[in-house]
């Protein structure tokens, strides 16, 4: 048997379930009409589900966009701090987001299509239900057992078939939504786990590293300035105090005086480790 | 002859147009059996389009059962298979 005939049997088998219930054909008309109204309400709820699923994808896409631009900024910051490793990490994640976004776009398009079709189907069913309502009264009024049996039977199976078709269309839309929700859930998890960066910034590892680097950069700078001030021998020229005062011969005396004036106690503590002060302090500052 | 395109509506066709539909239907069955998605796509598109262009839409206030039913134009092979599978469930 061909596909077309088999599908017809399937759709009509579903449609005929409505017909089986009532004995008097006139009751069948009313029963069928009730079912149509139920079906229409269901379809409208189905349409709302599609719209919700579409909205969710749009929101996720926005979040991903934000995350992507944040990662790009981080990459810039990282490069400015000479942290190529961090920049690479940020850009790699960013390209991961681009892939996610592409996937979301496909799904969004599919849902939009689904919505459009379901809306058209619903409108059609609505028009048919409306027409059926008037016809069923005419059929009932002109009811004579002999001929009405077939005419009512035909009208009811005609409309039932449309309902069954709408039911299938709705099922199709819901299958799509289910697929998308599974995927949307995965994206939510990614966002939640901070893999795609948490936008509050607090639990974002790249940002934390950058902040740390910036902070330790400041510390290093401060330390360097302090040491320049403290260190008697070579640092003198860079210190703000003694530069203009005297020739190289006097250098050893002058800075010492200057330091004593400014920061007495540290100057005395510092000489304890004169050979390697930067590395030690660096390590201390960074950890 | 009334033909339904699922998700779209019913169309009335001349009896003479049915032969060409049935030929395409056989091709569709072959593509389905061979699991040949590209051919399936092509045949289904032609089938649906020939009904759409060759027939006249059945008005909303005319209630008649269909003699033939087509899957939605965008249905995939897997989707059609699933649709047809509900037949077995119904019959058993």
Q: Largest sheet of chain B, described in full?
A: 4 strands, mixed
Query: Radius of gyration of chain B in whole Å, from Cα?
Result: 13 Å
Q: C-alpha Rg of chain A, in Å?
A: 39 Å
Task: Please tally the β strands of chain A and state the result.
Answer: 0
Distance between the termini of chain B: 29 Å
**Uncertain stretches of 5 or more adjacent residues of chain B:** none
Mean pLDDT of chain B: 89
Q: What amount of the residues of chain B lies in strands?
A: 5-15%
C-alpha geometry of chain A: rod-shaped
Count of beta strands of chain B: 4
Mean pLDDT of chain A: 74
Residues in helices of chain B, as a percent range: 40-55%
The interface involving the most residues is between: A-B, 38 and 35 residues
What does this protein structure show overall?
The complex is a heterodimer of chains A (287) and B (92). Chain A is mainly alpha-helical and 287 residues long. Chain A is built from eight helices and no strands. Chain A has helices at residues 3-19, 25-80, 84-141, 145-193, 205-230, 254-262, 264-269, 277-286. Chain A is rod-shaped, with a radius of gyration of 39 Å. Chain B has 92 residues and is α+β, with helices and mostly antiparallel strands. In chain B, 53% of the residues lie in helices and 14% in strands. Chain B has three helices and four strands, in the order E-E-H-H-E-E-H. In chain B, strands 3-2-1-4 form a four-stranded mixed beta sheet, covered by helices on one side. In chain B, helix 1 runs antiparallel to helix 2. The longest helix of chain B is centred in the middle third of the chain and has 18 residues, at 37-54. The N and C termini of chain B lie far apart (29 Å). The model of chain B has no long low-confidence stretch (mean pLDDT 89). At the A-B interface, helix 1, helix 3 and helix 4 of A face helix 1, strand 4 and helix 3 of B.
């Amino acid at each position: 048997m061909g596909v077309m005939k088999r599908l017809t049997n399937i759709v009509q088998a579903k449609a005929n379930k409505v017909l089986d219930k009532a004995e008097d054909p006139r009751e069948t008309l009313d029963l069928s009409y009730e079912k149509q109204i139920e079906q229409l309400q269901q379809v409208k709820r189905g349409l709302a589900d599609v719209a919700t699923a579409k909205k969710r994808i749009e929101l996720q896409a926005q979040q991903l966009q934000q995350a992507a631009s944040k990662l790009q900024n981080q990459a810039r910051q990282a490069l400015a701090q000479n942290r190529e490793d961090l920049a690479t990490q940020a850009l790699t994640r960013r390209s991961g987001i681009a892939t996610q976004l592409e996937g979301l776009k496909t799904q969004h398009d599919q849902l939009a299509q689904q919505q459009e079709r379901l809306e058209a189907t619903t409108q059609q069913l609505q028009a048919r239900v409306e027409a059926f309502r008037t016809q069923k009264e005419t059929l009932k009024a002109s009811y004579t057992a002999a001929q009405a049996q077939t005419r009512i039977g035909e009208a009811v199976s005609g409309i039932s078939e449309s309902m069954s078709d709408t039911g299938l269309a709705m099922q199709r839309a819901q299958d799509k939504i289910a697929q998308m929700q599974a995927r949307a859930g995965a994206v939510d998890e990614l966002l939640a786990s901070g893999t795609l960066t948490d936008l509050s910034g607090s639990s974002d590892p790249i940002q934390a590293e950058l902040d740390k680097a910036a902070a330790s950069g400041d510390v290093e700078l401060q330390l360097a300035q302090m040491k320049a001030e403290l260190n008697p021998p070579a640092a003198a020229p860079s210190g703000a105090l003694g530069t203009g005062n005297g020739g190289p011969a006097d250098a050893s005396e002058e800075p010492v005086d200057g330091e004593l004036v400014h920061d007495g106690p540290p100057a005395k503590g510092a000489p304890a480790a004169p050979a390697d002060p930067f590395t030690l302090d660096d390590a201390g500052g960074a950890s | 002859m009334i033909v339904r395109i699922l998700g779209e509506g019913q169309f009335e066709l001349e009896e003479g147009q049915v032969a060409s539909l049935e030929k395409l239907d056989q091709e569709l069955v072959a593509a389905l059996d061979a699991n040949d998605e590209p051919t399936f796509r092509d045949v289904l598109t032609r089938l649906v389009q020939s009904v759409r262009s060759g027939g006249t839409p059945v008005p909303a206030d005319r209630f008649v059962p269909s003699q033939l039913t087509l899957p939605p134009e965008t249905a995939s092979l897997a989707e059609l298979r699933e649709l047809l599978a509900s037949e077995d469930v119904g019959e058993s």
